[in-house]
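Continuing the batch. This is chain 6 of the set; chains 1 through 5 are on the previous pages. Same settings as before, nothing changed between runs. Recording input and output for traceability.
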Amino acid sequence: MFSRKHTRKIYAVLIIAALAFPLISNNTYYITMLCLAFIYMIVAFGLNFITGMTGQVNLGTAGIFCIGAYTSALLTTKTFISPWLALLVVILFGFVIGIALGYPSLRLKGVYLSLTTIAFGEIVRQLVNNMTDFTGGAHGVRAIPPYCLFGFELNTKLRLYYFLLAVTIMFGLIAYRIIYSKWGRVFTAIRDNIDAVDTCGISSSKVKIIAFTLAAVFAAIAGGLYAHYSGYINPSTFTLNLSVSFVVMVMVGGSGTVLGSVLGAVLVSILPEMLRFLGNYYQIVFYILVFICTILIPNGIVNVFLERQKTKALPEKN
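Output for chain 6:
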């Protein structure tokens, strides 16, 4: 595989570019879009453990994202606790949801698991839509306070940008460490040969639950960040379409890689906006492009380059 030395150089270049972007461009619209992309990257990092590595499809990620967002929003607007304390509750909820969703994956596979996760996501969305006295229903939750860091409120686009960039880098490093650890190899083995995993004395059931739990915690935290980034949330955001978009980020960007999640999140966040000039047809064109990518490069864009580099490296070694 492409050496870690090369990938680290790529990550360093991307981080420097991200740090410099607001200094080069004063376009607040693109800064806002990148803030959203950073949040989506965190979701993609987590979903990569399930879809990209263990080979299971979770189409209920929007539901977990929704729970994280509403938990943090309601705690900070109704009980007026700090967003940082609310974040601890969000992590706890993500942990519990991950375990709860992980158990069906022990019995269900393929389309049946997909349908189960879709049902979960829709149940969550309908609950927040209908519990009007508690969640605000279709009107959502307004006036969600921003995070406060070292006495400064993160209430400007520039402060939010650098805060979300720092958090995304942190979760990217965590994901990177997991991917290249023993657990990362076991996740991949679950996808490639689950019987061999059990033969080696490793509980495949335990591994699946761990993968779902990691993904759920990442998604819940990202949801909490989204609530305070947006300042307003409502049920219409957390649809099945959002869950599909999260899967697209992982698969089109490059499954099993942190870099793929980064690229996928940027493409899914920004490309539809770049196609807005097509009017009502922009979504059709976007999904046609996704379809073409899925057919031509099923392993994702990043993995195409990784395989090419691997092929080039073989003659040099020989």
